[in-house]
Write a sequence for this structure.
């Protein structure tokens, strides 16, 4: 699945089958379910999960917490719009 297909799946009531936690987290935050997205990201205890958590805390408006998670992800804080960052992370994860 590519980014276009993943984005198109947002019209559905459930995420596509077989997504890992980071992509499922991105799907849920795009649908407005920050709590579910955060739970999934917290369960992914690696740099990928940290990158998604950083994005989620930007969505939440907690930039100091986002900065912590960017550090855990070994990434600089994003200056992109939330939509652009969401697409960047989703595309990177889908390419794996």
């Amino acid at each position: 699945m590519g980014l276009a297909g993943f984005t198109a799946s947002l019209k559905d009531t459930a995420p596509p089958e077989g997504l890992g936690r980071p992509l499922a987290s991105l799907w849920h935050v795009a649908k407005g379910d920050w709590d579910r997205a955060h739970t999934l990201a917290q369960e992914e205890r690696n740099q990928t999960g940290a990158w998604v958590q950083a994005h989620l805390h930007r969505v939440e408006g907690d930039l100091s917490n986002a900065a912590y998670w960017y550090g855990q992800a070994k990434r600089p804080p994003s200056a992109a719009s939330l939509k652009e960052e969401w697409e960047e992370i989703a595309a990177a994860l889908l390419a794996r």
Helices lie at 3-8, 21-30, 34-43, 47-60, 63-73, 82-94. The CA atoms of residues 41 and 49 lie 5 Å apart.
